[in-house]
Amino acid sequence: MRFTRRHPLLTAMLLCALAVLAARPADGDHAPGHGAASGVSAEVARLYEEAAVATERYEAGLREAEKQRAEARLLEERLERERREMAVLHEDLGRIASSQYRDGGGLPLTAHMLLADDPEELMRGQRVVRQAEVSLDKAIGRSERAEARLARDEAKAAAAWKELEKRNTELAALRQGIERKLEAARWKLQGQADASVAAGACRGAVRLDQPETRFTTDWVAPVETYELSASYGSGGTRWANRHTGQDFAVPIGTPVRAVGAGKVVKVSCGGAFGIAIVVRHAGGYYTQYAHLAAVAVDQGERVVPGQWIGQSGTSGNSTGPHLHFEVRVTPDTGSAVDPVAWLERHGVPL
């Protein structure tokens, strides 16, 4: 039997390949923070949207409730006005009746005419009294009808208010339930992100269903709803030098958007920035999105304005959930410019 001579370099390559294959996860296994995280990311994104819709419906219910309160106040004011007018009319009727009694209102009209010094004046007085009585009867009828109508309106408003209150209570409970689920899912997602950062490896993008919104502008803010926290150039014990970006205080799992069209040149999962994405834009500028909980794009992909490219978190050296946003003249740290002024020049005031 003839034995062939093994090439030492080929043997080393084969051993490396076997080691890599042995280290790869089997079907159903996942690297820390990825794979199964796609389900959590999608759940967070779905719950995020559901919470937004539930909040919108709840706030619409509150606005409707305030409208109902205003209408009820108007009804009460109108009813009170009608009651005051009717009270004045009753007083007028009382004065007329008293006047008739003093002037012998119990005698027949013929006797009054025989006894009167001026029959024509008496007739004019009687006509005035009758006209006053007719006017009073009409006014009382109007007032009673108005009061009945207002009573019906009040009953209707009360029923509508009761139904509205019930619906708002149900909406509040629905919103609270969604928010509880969302909070639990957010921290599960963050736990997987922390595991990914600890492993120092990104496995790939977690695809999210993109919103139907199509932007008509070339540039947008990196998150939709936010509070600005640490600003560019600010100092503090958290940074070795000065702060190199603008922080957006947002909850974990908030969709992070590409501020403009570009190409993803870097996706990293380790170091001070935790999970981070760098996008190159026309004109030689780069934007970075850091401390993420998940990414939704891979390196080399092209993105459009407003596209969801990841989800915010608190990975890396972070003191709490937020998005760290930078604008640079190179893809690397140390070349940052003021991101707020840069966005303003592109028509995006923060």
State the main characteristics.
350 residues; alpha+beta; 14% strand
- Give the overall shape, derived from the CA principal axes: elongated
Structure class: alpha+beta
Which regions have little confidence, pLDDT < 50, spanning 5+ residues?
Answer: 1-37
Average pLDDT number: 77
The largest sheet, given as strand count, sense and whether it forms a barrel, is:
10 strands, antiparallel
CA radius of gyration is 39 Å
Distance between the termini: 79 Å
Estimate percent helicity.
40-55%
Query: Helical region count?
Result: 5
Topology as a string of helices (H) and strands (E): HHHHEEEEEEEEEEH
Beta content: 5-15%
Number of strands: 10
Set out the fold topology.
Elements: H1 8-23, H2 37-102, H3 109-115, H4 119-199, E1 227-228, E2 246-249, E3 255-257, E4 262-269, E5 275-280, E6 286-295, E7 302-303, E8 308-312, E9 323-328, E10 336-337, H5 339-345
Antiparallel strand pairs: 1-2, 2-9, 3-8, 4-5, 4-7, 5-6, 6-8, 6-9, 9-10
Helix pairs in contact: 2-4
